Amino acid sequence: MFKENKRVIATDTLIGQGTLTEGKMVCEASLRIEGEYRGDIECKGNVIIGECGVARSNIIAQDVTVAGKVIGDITTKGRLIITASGQVNGNLYANILIVQDGGIINGSCQMEVPKEAKGKGASDSDSHHAANSKEQGGREGKEKSRQAG
Predict the structure, then answer these.
(1) What are the CA-CA distances from residue 128 to residues 83, 104, 136 (Å)?
(2) How far apart, in whole angstroms, are the C-alpha atoms of residue 31 and residue 15?
(3) Are the C-beta atoms of residues 63 and 44 closer than 8 Å to each other?
(4) Rg, C-alpha atoms of the chain
(5) How many CA atoms within 13 Å lie on the side-chain side of 58?
(6) What is the distance between the alpha carbons of residues 126 and 109, in angstroms, rounded to a whole number?
(7) At 31, is the secondary structure helix, strand, or coil?
(8) Is 81 left (phi over 0), alpha (psi -120 to 50) or beta?
(9) Would you say residue 104 has pLDDT above 70?
(10) Taking the model in full, what pTM does it have?
(11) Alpha-carbon distance 111 to 122, whole Å?
(12) Do 46 and 29 contact (CB within 8 A), yes or no?
């Protein structure tokens, strides 16, 4: 008569200040690190590295906020925020990157443009470039003819 409702209840994970954890973390919900974590992190939710937090990790998550220190690569499908107290020593792969005054990045950054915008932007850019080249070529021709005559 009654259906069993099996729901996955998302619980946030906290690694508290003064805690050192090692290993590979795979989590469905959000993760906050205020202590120190060593190992790779794969998170379907968001990852927050607090001001006292240190992650010696490669991080893959939806959104990432760094207020502490990350040593490793960060890959996000969404937004990467590096606050004024945040430091990242590694490569960044994000759709949106926000670095507040004082935030530090030591590494390379690659940003992906969504596919819809990529197609539109390329055609607009190409036609704009072609128009400029044509216009510039016409000017150069007129200048040369003036100089010759």
Answers:
(1) 36, 35, 12
(2) 8
(3) no
(4) 24
(5) 5
(6) 24
(7) strand
(8) beta
(9) yes
(10) 0.69
(11) 16
(12) no
Token representation of residue 94: 């994000």
Q: 63-94 burial, b if ≥16 CB within 10 A, otherwise e?
A: bbbbbbbbebbbbbeeebbbbebbbbebbbbb
- 56 bridge partner residues: 38
128, pLDDT greater than 90: no
What token pair was written down for 33? 């690190």
Query: Residue ranges of the alpha helices (H) in the chain?
Result: 115-148
| pLDDT tens digit sequence for 61-72 | 999 999 999 999
Two structure tokens written together for 49: 């590295």
87 token code pair: 């430091």
CA–CA separation, 19 and 37 (whole Å): 8
